[in-house]
């Protein structure tokens, strides 16, 4: 006889595909919100991708960013400024896009490892407390649990962003034929504070969404 778990697998796959497709759309839309402040535009992609890292499973997050890059590579206008094509990936700002893939992979693996080993930040091994147990927690215990989960997710966002910065800075140096200091000042420095704020906002939103759908 077919088990309940076996019967639910197609539904789980359908849900996963839907999540990936929706995430690709969100990343694309976030890339269209552009504030030009120099050669490197300001977009909401860091927010959208960090949100995906926290909410989705590792496979879903990697599939979403891979699908996004593939769509852009074949010419679909999903990159900043509603652009698409290999030329964007090979251009001075293309390193950030490649960095998204490597950064997402590293961040979700880190998050998966921490969630699995420590049972925090939404992991499957995280303790499931009853209402009575939650009510019995002191404020300090509640704050500690929140900060552990929140802090881990912030670190995952920082890992993703740092790798994207490194790849973007490297390609900007090569394509733009500038030195490291110039590349850093143009491609990274103006965005550090704003992008960190986007990471924090993404984690807060992700935790709210995850709590709502439990």
Automatic annotation (TrEMBL):
Annotated localization: Cell membrane
Keywords: Cell membrane, Membrane, Transmembrane, Transmembrane helix, Transport
Highest taxon of the lineage: Bacteria
Pfam family membership, one: BioY
TM segment ranges: 16-34, 40-56, 68-90, 96-114, 150-174, 180-206
GO cellular component: plasma membrane
Molecular-function GO terms, alphabetical: biotin transmembrane transporter activity
Membrane topology, as annotated: Multi-pass membrane protein
Keyword Transit peptide: no
InterPro entries linked to this entry: BioY (IPR003784)
Major subcellular location class: membrane
This protein's record includes keyword Membrane: yes
Family indicated by similarity: Belongs to the BioY family.
Protein name in UniProt: Biotin transporter
Naturally occurring in which organism (per UniProt): Adlercreutzia equolifaciens subsp. celatus DSM 18785
């Amino acid at each position: 006889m077919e088990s309940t778990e076996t019967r639910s697998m197609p539904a789980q796959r359908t849900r996963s595909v839907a999540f990936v497709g929706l995430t690709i759309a969100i990343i694309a839309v976030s890339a269209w919100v552009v504030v030009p402040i120099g050669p490197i535009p300001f977009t909401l992609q860091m927010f959208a991708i960090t949100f995906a890292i926290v909410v989705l499973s590792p496979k879903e997050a990697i599939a979403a960013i891979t699908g996004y890059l593939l769509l852009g590579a074949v010419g679909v206008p999903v990159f900043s400024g509603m652009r698409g094509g290999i030329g964007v990936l090979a251009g001075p700002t293309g390193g950030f896009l490649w960095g998204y893939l490597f950064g997402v992979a590293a961040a979700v693996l880190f998050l998966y490892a921490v969630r699995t080993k420590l049972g925090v930040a939404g992991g499957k091994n995280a303790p499931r407390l009853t209402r009575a147990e939650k009510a019995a927690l002191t404020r300090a215990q509640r704050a500690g649990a929140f900060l552990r989960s929140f802090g881990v997710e912030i670190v995952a966002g920082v890992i993703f962003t740092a790798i994207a910065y490194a790849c973007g800075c490297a390609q900007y140096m090569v394509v733009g034929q500038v030195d490291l200091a110039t590349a850093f000042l143009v491609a990274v420095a103006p965005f550090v504070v704003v992008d960190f704020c986007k990471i924090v906002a993404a984690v807060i939103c992700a935790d709210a969404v995850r709590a709502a759908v439990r």
